[in-house]
Design a protein that fits this description.
The complex is a heterodimer.
Chain A: H1 21-63, H2 66-69, E1 73-74, E2 79-80, H3 83-112, H4 118-130, H5 136-162, H6 177-201, H7 205-213, H8 218-229, H9 231-247, H10 250-255, H11 273-280, H12 286-321
Antiparallel strand pairs in A: 1-2
Chain B: H1 2-6, E1 22-33, E2 36-47, E3 51-55, H2 62-68, E4 79-87, E5 90-91, H3 99-105, E6 106-109, H4 120-130, H5 137-147, H6 151-154, H7 167-179, E7 185-189, H8 197-210, E8 215-219, H9 223-229, E9 232-239, E10 246-254, H10 255-260, H11 265-271
Parallel strand pairs in B: 3-8, 3-9, 6-7, 7-8
Antiparallel strand pairs in B: 1-2, 1-4, 4-5, 9-10
Classes of the chains: A mainly alpha, B alpha/beta.
Chain lengths: ~325, ~280
């Protein structure tokens, strides 16, 4: 606490005075709690990594890095490998990112660039954000009972007509990568859209004026000025969306087919790390649990790496062109 | 503000006959923001290769009038313009006229420097690319930056962000961006209000050079600036007699006349600093 209060200055007749002791105590208290919380979160992350790492260690010493490249998961023979799951996780999340990213950013443009009256835009934004309130398991059920039956004729027609294209290389018999990725795309849509909306809202009005003042059409202003200016924020939206897609569990476990195979086909069943963990844990014996812990560690590493790359890219993009404000 | 109230009887605009060729003629009948009448009957001719200064107290509609000249106000949904702005004889508010086209011929420099979050080079090249310029881009960028008197300061860092420059440099960059496409008319909305005196002086010198090639309309809060650079000055006042604040053109004429021998009492009071 600042000790010098200018007590020697004659303040009679003035209402000016130092902040009260309470003000100082509150400030210090708040700072203390904030620091403590920050340290706690850091410690929690470290603890989780250590804990999972420790549990995964036996499996790691047993299977080594072969675990990452092997494609069998056989409890009876004790052979474990998660290459199909890594593939499924990245492939489904990437598809979801492409679909959800395109639609999410398009929605953000639609909601912020004067296509709609302000009130209507707010209503639409709320509706999009409500998508995030739908439980994962409901998305899964909707996928099974609505989306898959809806997709099957289309998918099988595509397979029949364009089967030579690797993406349509198999028919869709039930659950599969395509429906899973579509549901995943819808699930990350609110994240991508609402963060992108915020990013576009943060572009100062004077920048928009500058664009229109140069004689841009609306789309030239959006594509050449607004999106690049909001670029780092939109990138953040995509990174967060991708992160969410990587870790999404329930809906995927229900929709992806839990099948150990690597295929480019959108209609083939597949598996993801999160779905593998969710579906195998309940009945796993001690040997399998160790392998699952290893898989969990890999999932954790993938999400951490993706987020770190995302942050680095954002930082690079920000440093390059957004100056001190 | 009492002086403004006195002036309500002054009536319609009185512009003395311009001597040069008129590039734009702004004949405002009424300008509304929603139900609010912002500017009433005013006629403001803009002469070729001259600087026309708009002065007046806050809320007199000088910026609104300026922004009506390239339809920038169209960005505001509740804006409504009644009247005519002819540009080389064509009414730019005609239904058949695309405001985007208008803004490509009538460039604008804003109050706050507003470079894009891209490199200095790309900022200047922006309009050239927009217009599908196929020639030597480097040459035109250099020419525009030289024209805006900032080439020497930025020539070694063209790849740096436009936002990394100081305020005065940013504003000159914005001027370079505006003149790169060689528009016909340049609208400047208080371009020096965010700048320090030295940067202001440089931009003023620049305006005097630019008027050789372009026609400039300049809104300024700074009466000294008007006397320093404007050939013609338009003085706008605020009419508060109807219970709201409506701007209108009080008087327009050669700058020397407006400041030394104004025809209207209100103009005299304003230029002598008796109200603001």
């Amino acid at each position: 606490m600042a000790s010098h209060h200018f007590d020697h200055v004659d303040r009679s007749g003035s209402v000016s005075g130092p902040p009260s002791a309470g003000d100082y105590i509150f400030d210090r208290g708040f700072r203390g709690v904030a620091w403590l919380s920050a340290v706690f979160i850091l410690a929690l992350v470290v603890y989780i990594v250590i804990e999972i790492g420790g549990k995964a260690l036996p499996a790691f010493s047993e299977y080594g890095f072969g675990f990452l490249t092997s494609t069998t998961w056989n409890v009876q023979t004790g052979q474990f490998g998660i290459l199909p799951e890594i593939w499924g996780t990245l492939y489904s999340s990437l598809l979801a990112l492409i679909i959800g990213g395109v639609f999410g950013v398009a929605i953000a443009i639609f909601l912020t660039q004067d296509f709609l009256h302000g009130h209507l835009a707010a209503v639409f934004r709320t509706i999009i954000e409500l998508l995030a309130a739908i439980p994962s398991v409901v998305y899964g059920l909707w996928g099974i009972y609505v989306l898959i039956p809806l997709l099957r004729p289309v998918a099988n027609w595509l397979h029949g007509e364009f089967g030579f294209v690797p993406f349509f290389g198999t028919s869709l018999s039930g659950p599969g990568l395509g429906p899973a990725a579509l549901v995943l795309a819808i699930m990350i849509l609110p994240t991508v859209a609402s963060i992108s909306v915020d990013a576009l809202h943060q572009v100062p009005y004077k920048v928009k004026e500058a664009a229109y003042g140069m004689g841009t059409t609306r789309w030239e202003a959006i594509l050449k000025v607004m999106l690049p200016t909001a670029g780092s924020g939109i990138l953040a939206a995509l990174v967060l969306g991708f992160g969410r897609a990587l870790g999404e569990t329930m809906a995927l476990a229900m929709l992806i087919g839990n099948s150990n195979q690597i295929s480019l086909s959108l209609f083939s069943p597949a598996n993801t790390l999160a779905a593998l963990l969710a579906s195998s844990f309940p009945e796993a014996g001690p040997v399998e649990v160790r392998a699952l812990m290893y898989a969990a560690l890999v999932l954790l590493a993938i999400t951490l790496i993706v987020n770190a790359i995302g942050l680095a890219v954002m930082k690079f993009a920000t440093r390059k062109f957004e100056a001190e404000r | 503000m009492n002086a403004t109230a006195e002036m309500t009887a002054a009536g319609a605009a009185s512009a003395s006959a311009p001597t040069g060729a008129i590039v734009m003629n702004c004949q405002i009948d009424k300008v509304f923001y929603g139900d609010f009448l912002a500017v009433r009957a005013s006629t403001v001719p803009i002469e070729k290769n001259k600087i026309t200064g708009f002065i007046g107290p806050s809320g007199c509609g000088k910026s609104t009038v300026l922004r009506s000249l390239n339809r920038m106000n169209d960005l505001i949904p509740i804006f409504r313009f009644e009247g005519k702005v002819t540009y080389h004889g064509q009414d730019i508010y005609d239904r058949k006229v695309d405001p985007v086209v208008v803004r490509r011929y009538i460039g604008m420099v804003f109050q706050q420097p507003n470079p894009f979050a891209m490199s200095i080079y790309d900022n200047v090249a922006f309009g050239l690319r927009l217009n599908g310029f196929k020639g030597n881009l480097d040459e035109r960028v250099e020419k525009a930056l030289k024209g805006a008197a900032c080439w020497n300061e930025v020539k070694d860092k063209l790849k740096n962000s436009g936002l990394s420059l100081s305020g005065g440099q940013q504003q000159r960059l914005c001027i370079a961006r505006a003149i790169a496409t060689e528009p016909d008319v340049l609208l400047m909305d208080e371009p020096c209000s965010a700048l320090d005196p030295i940067a202001t002086r440089r931009v003023e010198e620049l305006m005097l050079e630019l008027k050789e090639k372009y026609t400039i309309a300049l809104v300024t809060h700074n009466m000294q600036q008007a006397t320093r650079v404007a050939d013609t000055t338009a003085f706008f006042g605020v009419d508060i007699s109807q219970g709201s604040r409506t701007g209108y053109l009080v008087e327009m004429g050669p700058t020397r006349q407006i400041f030394e021998d104004p025809q209207e009492k209100l103009t005299g009071e304003y230029v002598r600093g008796e109200f603001s």
